[in-house]
Amino acid sequence: MKTGLVLEGGAMRGMFTAGVLDVMMKNGIDFDGAIGVSAGAAFGCNIKSRQPGRVIRYSTKYCTDWRFSSWKSFFKTGNLYGAEFCYKTIPYELDPMDFETFEKNPIEFYGVCTNVETGKPYYHRFSNGMGKDMYYFTASASMPVVSKIVEVDGHKLLDGGVADSIPIKFWEHKGYNKNVVVLTQPLEYEKKPNKMLPLIKFMYKDSPDFIESVRVRHIRYNKTLEYIRKKELAGELFVIRPPKALEIGSMEHNPDELRRVYDIGIGTMESKIETLKEYLKA
Questions:
Q1: How many CA atoms lie within 13 A of 16 on its CB side?
Q2: pLDDT of residue 184
Q3: Strands, E, within 66-194: which ranges?
Q4: Taking 90 as the threshold, does the pLDDT of residue 18 lie above it?
Q5: Best exposed site among 144, 156, 199, 267 by fewest CB in 10 Å?
Q6: pLDDT tens for residues 119-129?
Q7: Motif DGA/G at which residues (predicted)?
């Protein structure tokens, strides 16, 4: 049996995931492998570096800094979330990631990106969190339109959520057969077509496969939710989701709002922690 953890993205909805993971870490819950998409990768990596509290700490401290996320950042750097600040200044200087623990921790940790040239998902296994790994973290969370394309290892990459928002089937194919999925939308959520598709068609006109992936994303996403729900009802999957819509935007400069969503994650996981332990033991 291989235990796996699958982490959906969702920009600042990821604060819910951060709360969930902090409760897991404080209760000593480990997995053989984990895979994150976008914010699920950027925040979820702290489970491999074993740093509970780090996400809420740096997010609330720097959310008012224009370099963290702002339209000023977008117009100055081309990235709504400042790549230099978020993936270099913070993890290396201001609130360092424990790279040594990250590398030594045996848990396999993957991130999902979308290949702009093919429209298909690209799955990257992280090694030590540094160097090229940081470019893959950046790529996984680089939302179309408001982010620069990240070029690494010959790939042109953007947000993994476009091609594989909830990579449960990929994870099962990797051999993980006892899985926990952390979603950032409530049970009743259904994704709608992307309203920005006309702009995406214009901006990425030389990448038709990427445009098509964006066009059908909601269809693929909703089918994945159906698959997850079926397995959940059969007791073959443990799912953690917010009790209601988190109602937080892609950018949030109010630390109290970040804390609110984080606390929902804390409370949700605390209410399920014993059930989760039983599921993982079974």
A1: 25
A2: 98
A3: 108-115, 121-125, 150-152, 155-159, 178-182
A4: yes
A5: 199
A6: 999 999 999 99
A7: 159-161
Predicted local confidence at residue 27, as pLDDT: 98
Which of 178, 172, 126 shows the shortest CA–CA distance to 152? 126
Cα separation, 94 vs 117, in Å, equals 35
Say if CB 171 and CB 35 are below 8 A apart. Answer: yes
Residue matched to tokens 């989701």: 241
Task: Provide the 8-state DSSP code for 5.
Answer: E
Q: Annotated catalytic, 73?
A: no
pLDDT tens digits for 203-250?
A: 999 999 999 999 999 999 999 999 999 999 999 999 999 999 999 989
Q: What is the maximal distance between C-alpha atoms in the chain?
A: 52
Sorted by sequence, the CB contacts under 8 Å of residue 232 that are 6+ apart come out as 238, 239
Residue 189 pLDDT class (50, 70, 90 cuts)? very high
Structure tokens at 280: 């993982």
- The answer to whether residues 17 and 265 touch, using CB atoms and an 8 Å cutoff, is yes
C-alpha 27, offset from chain centre: 22
CA distances from 35 to 95, 132, 251 (A): 23, 17, 23
Please report the pLDDT score of residue 225 as a whole number.
Answer: 98
Residue 282 has pLDDT above 90, yes or no: no
On the CB side of 186, CA atoms within 13 Å amount to: 8
The CATH architecture annotation of domain 2-281 reads 3-Layer(aba) Sandwich (3.40)
Q: Which residue has the tokens 């993971």?
A: 21
Cβ-based burial of 181 (10 A; exposed 0-12, middle 13-18, buried ≥19): buried
Q: Is 38 designated active site?
A: yes
* pTM for the structure as a whole: 0.97
Catalytic residue among 159, 164, 165, 207: 159
